[in-house]
Write a structure and sequence with these properties.
Oligomer: single chain
Number of strands: 11
Distance between the termini: 45 Å
Structural class: alpha+beta
Shape: globular
C-alpha cells in the first residue's frame, strides 16, 4: 500500500492536512495556518515556530479568540492563556489489514450523509459531544450514518487528511441506540473506504474515553502515540 509506512506526517496531522489535501479550506499567514471557521477549529504552526510565527497566527485568528492547537508539539508565548488541556492518544490501522464488518441491529442500514442531513448531524453532535464539529465539517470527507425509524442515531466521518492517511472522526451514537454495534459498523465501513483509496485510517481518542479505546482496539487499531490536545486564548 503506497505511502503507508510514512507515519512521520502524523506528528502534525493538522498542518499536513492544511498544507495539502485541505489547502482549499485553509487560511494562512507566513507559516501559520488555520481552517476557515465553518469547517473546523484547528490551527497549526511549524515545529520550530518562533514569536513572529505565533504573531502571524494571532493575526489570522484575532484578539480574544481561542487557538485550537490539536496535538501541536510546540507551545505559544506564555501570555497566551491555556483554556483547555485533554490527554489522548493517536491510533493507527495496521498496515495490510482489512476490517471485518460487524453485524448490527436488523433494519439499520449505513447511509452516506450530505448537506441535507446537517441539521440532524449537528443535533446528534450536541447530544453526544464527540468533539469539535462545525456546520461544514462534513465537507472534509465522507460521513456515514445509521437511521432507526427515519431518525439519525449514529454517525462517523473523515476529517484530517495528511498525505497517505485519513482520520476517522465524529464517531457518535445516540444514548438510546447504544449497544447495537453501530459505531463498530460505521468505523469499519469508513476504514474500508479509506483502504480502497490506498490510504490508511487513523484516529484520535481521549484517554478518559475507555469505552471508545476498547472498541478501537477490538477493531484492530493500535496506539501510535500519546497526545495532548490544547487550546489557548490569544491575548
Amino acid at each position: 500500500m503506497t505511502g503507508h509506512s510514512d507515519t512521520a506526517v502524523l506528528d502534525d496531522p493538522v498542518g499536513e492536512s492544511l498544507r495539502g489535501s485541505h489547502a482549499h479550506l485553509a487560511r494562512g499567514l507566513g507559516h501559520a495556518v488555520t481552517y476557515s471557521r465553518p469547517f473546523a477549529t484547528f490551527s497549526a504552526v511549524s515545529p520550530t515556530a518562533d514569536a513572529a510565527e505565533w504573531a502571524d497566527l494571532a493575526e489570522l485568528l484575532g484578539h480574544g479568540r481561542v487557538a485550537d492547537m490539536f496535538s501541536c508539539p510546540v507551545l505559544p508565548p506564555p501570555e497566551w492563556e491555556e483554556v483547555f488541556t485533554l490527554e489522548g492518544r493517536q491510533m493507527v490501522w495496521p498496515d495490510g489489514a482489512r476490517p471485518d464488518h460487524p453485524r448490527t441491529a436488523p433494519g439499520s442500514d449505513v447511509v452516506e450523509l450530505g448537506p441535507e442531513d446537517v441539521p440532524e448531524m449537528l443535533e446528534l453532535v450536541e447530544r453526544t459531544q464527540p468533539g469539535p464539529f462545525r456546520p461544514r465539517t462534513h465537507e472534509l470527507g465522507t460521513y456515514l450514518g445509521i437511521r432507526e425509524k427515519d431518525t439519525l442515531v449514529a454517525m462517523a466521518g473523515e476529517r484530517l487528511r495528511p498525505p497517505g492517511w485519513t482520520e476517522i472522526s465524529a464517531v457518535c451514537t445516540a444514548p438510546e441506540a447504544r449497544g447495537r454495534g453501530h459505531a463498530a459498523r460505521l468505523v469499519c465501513a469508513l476504514a474500508a473506504r479509506v483502504l480502497d483509496r490506498r490510504e490508511r485510517p487513523f484516529l484520535h481518542v481521549a484517554e478518559a474515553n475507555t469505552g471508545a479505546l476498547a472498541l478501537y482496539e477490538r477493531l484492530g487499531f493500535r496506539t501510535r502515540a500519546q497526545v495532548t490536545f490544547r487550546g489557548f486564548r490569544i491575548p
